[in-house]
Amino acid sequence: MLCNNAIMASSLVWKTIYTAALHHCRVGEESITDFLVLGLKMMASGTYRVDAFTKQKEAVNGADWELWVIGISGKSFGLRIQAKIIDYAKSEYPHLHPKPKSGELPQSQKLINAASAVHATPIYCLYTAWPSGTKPTPKRGCSTYLINDQHYGISVIAAGVVSGLAPTKALAVLSPHMLPFHCLFCPSSSDGHDLPTRVQMYVAEVIDQDALLLPNPPEHINRLMSRLDRDSNDGEYSDEELGSEVSRIVVISESNHQG
């Protein structure tokens, strides 16, 4: 079940950050995203499949990525994502608000604009762990399971909220707006709908009321999916195929009505 797999992925991210801090080792956002995508692919069941389209070049630090959910109905819902990792010792996200170059928009606004261009919803994935005794106050998010701290290993927060809270980077300030990643896939109030509809309904209710459910996948997603059977380049794609500001595109395709 996708919901359970997302919980396991979040717990693994939490443990990875904790272990890295314990051994004074830094783990970057791209590495964690790599393992997140790999984990989702490895755990995929007969109810859904995961396809990942990744940049050919290494220099993609700070780039957005996209997550698209496609239902058996053909409907789709997309997220445009910026990933940021916490500094465990300081309980803050040091790279959340990079200083823009002269004449450029802040990164959060660029994310919002880029999401709008492909009819996706802009969010941040905050890779998170906090020391014992720290008392952040994140949202519960959903009632599918009893929430514990490790469920916030991958936390989601609306890009508009991050933009509005700039320049703060502190977990204590951000946490009241943070939701567990798995809640995207575990909403209980929309049973009977296909996966993209359920995800969109949840996101529109608790993250971004402007979240759009599309009747069909956007053209760039259709183009990538149509190449799956004939590609032989190990899932690596060029700037022209993914876009210069995107490090990867992940597509979760539903194969029946169970999420």
SSE inventory with pairings:
Layout: H1 2-22, H2 29-43, E1 48-55, E2 64-70, E3 76-85, H3 107-117, E4 121-127, E5 154-158, H4 159-165, H5 171-174, E6 179-180, H6 195-206, H7 219-226, E7 236-237, H8 239-242, E8 246-254
Parallel strand pairs: 1-7, 2-8, 3-4
Antiparallel strand pairs: 1-8, 2-3, 4-5, 5-6
Question: Would you mind describing this structure in some detail?
Answer:
The protein is α/β, with parallel strands linked by helices and 259 residues long. 32% of the residues lie in helices and 19% in strands. The protein has helices spanning 2-22, 29-43, 107-117, 159-165, 171-174, 195-206, 219-226, 239-242, and strands at 48-55, 64-70, 76-85, 121-127, 154-158, 179-180, 236-237, 246-254. The protein has an eight-stranded mixed sheet with strand order 6-5-4-3-2-8-1-7, sandwiched between helices. α1 (2-22) packs antiparallel against α2 (29-43) and α3 (107-117) packs antiparallel against α4. The longest helix is centred in the N-terminal third of the chain and has 21 residues, at 2-22. The mean pLDDT is 89.
Give short descriptive properties of this protein.
single chain; 259 residues; alpha/beta; 8 helices
Secondary-structure class: alpha/beta
Q: How can the largest sheet be summarized? A: 8 strands, mixed
| Basic shape | globular
Strand order of the largest sheet: 6-5-4-3-2-8-1-7
The number of E-state strands comes to 8
Mean pLDDT: 89
List the helices and strands in order: HHEEEHEEHHEHHEHE
Total domain count: 1
The low-confidence runs, each spanning 5 or more residues with pLDDT under 50, are: none
Strand composition percent: 15-25%
The CA-CA distance between the termini, in Å, is 6 Å
Helix content: 25-40%
Computed over alpha carbons, the radius of gyration is 17 Å
* Structure annotation, total helices: 8
